[in-house]
Every structure is written in C-alpha cells, then in structure tokens.
Amino acid sequence: MSVLLDDNIIEWEAAMAVRSGNEKHASSRKSALEAELQAEAQRLRTRLQPVVEQHNLYLEDVDIKVAGSHRTVHVIVDLPEDATGSVGLDVISAISTDLSAAMDSDPDDDDRPYNLEISSPGVSRPLTEPRHWRRSVGRVVEVKPVTGDVVVGRLQDVTATGIRLIPHLPVKKGMKPKQGDPLALEFSKIRKGTVQVEFAHLEDEHHENSDGADPDISGAVHHA
Fold first, then answer.
1. Fewest C-beta in 10 Å: which of 57, 71, 149, 220?
2. What one-character-per-residue DSSP string does 32-46 give?
3. SS3 state at 108
4. Tell me: the pLDDT tens digits for 196-216?
C-alpha cells in the first residue's frame, strides 16, 4: 500500500514538473513576442514619424497587435500641443494614404499581411505627459494626486514643472458649480489625470469638423 502511494506521489510530482515547465515556456514565448512587437513598433515609429510631421501632426503612438500571421498596426496622431481642436476625419483620410504608402515601401518589412488603423486620441486618454496637459488647457480635468483628495477643475495653465487649475468646489445637486482659488500642482505630485467630458466642448468640436463626425473617435483603416 505504501509503495502504491509513493508511486502516485512520484507521478503527481512529475506531472506538476511538466506543467510548470510548459507554463514557464509559454510565459517565455509571450515575453519574447512582446519584446519583438515593441521593437517593431519603435522601428515603425521612426519610419512613420516624418510622414506624420509632413502633415503638421504629432505622432502620439504606434501599437502592433498580432493574430496568427496577421498584424494590426494602430497609429495615433494628434495636433501640435499649441493647436486647438481635434484631428478631423479629412486630415485622417489624407494622412492614411501617405502612411500606407510608407508601410508598403518599407524595405525591412517581412511581407506579412497587415491592417493599418489611424486615429486621434480620445478625451479618455490619460494625461501622462506635459504635452497632453498643454493640449487640454481650458478643459475640465480630474486630477488624482499622489496623496490627498481628487481635484476636479478647469485647467488654466501648464508650466515646465506642473499645472495650474481652478478647482470646482462641491455643491448640492442641481446647484451651479462654484470655483475655488487657483491651485498649482507639480507633475511629480500627480498620480493620474483625465479630461472630463463637457457637452459644450463636444458641440464646439462637432462644428469644427466639416463632416460632422466626432473627431475624438475618428479613424481610417487600410488593408495590405
């Protein structure tokens, strides 16, 4: 009886060792793939950035997703930080043609099929860089500091080291918001920042876009 028990234990330990080895192998392959995709995204960023700049836009990010042998290359472009408004569909359409041509003529491409998606950042984009904050001057933002309570207010100014906003003081439901004294926060003291959706701003951007689409979710797709 004890021999059978010992045999079962040995078999169980062997099975667990194989399982552990498989999990480590899968994790290693996943890490290698992620590193490969990050390197490829950086390479494409270098190649596509001049094309984006020719259209007086800023290359926000390049992200690559893989499903089997197929790739989806997502390119996010934005207006320069000193510009107002959002990237319209007409601009997205114009730059998509040039970006697609740059992808098709890439001498280092491995000829795998791909979808090229171009879009502009939405208002839900986290404010993680000074340029993000500068692009949001005049909007209502929510700021979560490293310590202390969340602050909601209208972004007034952005400096090299932080932001300045007019806080919205809490009031009873249905009452008009009240403003507090200007508040300055350093970037090093901010844990997270996001833009709060305002109907007035959405209406303004709607009129700025000639085709009436919401520019914050505009995009174009090219197949290759």
1. 149
2. HHHHHHHHHHHHHHH
3. coil
4. 987 655 444 444 444 433 334
In this structure, what DSSP letter does residue 69 have? T
Q: Rounded distance, CA 66 to CA 71, Å?
A: 5
Radius of gyration of the chain (CA): 25
What sign results for the dihedral spanned by CA atoms 35, 41, 47, 49?
Answer: negative
**E-strand spans in 170-214?**
178-179, 183-186, 190-195
Spatial distance between the Cα atoms of 47 and 116, rounded to a whole number of angstroms: 14
Nearest to 180 by CA among 193, 188, 171: 171
pLDDT band, residue 217 (cuts 50/70/90): very low
DSSP state at residue 146:
S
DSSP H stretches of helix in the chain: 2-54, 89-104, 130-135, 199-208
Identify the weakest region by mean pLDDT among 39-48, 75-84, 169-178, 213-222.
Answer: 213-222
N residues, the chain: 224
Rounded CA gap, 204 and 120, in Å? Answer: 17
Structural domains of the chain ordered from first start: 33-123+204-223 (3.30.300.70), 130-196 (2.30.30.100)
- Tokens found for residue 66: 């893989």
**Closest-CA residue to 152 (of 170, 174, 167):** 167
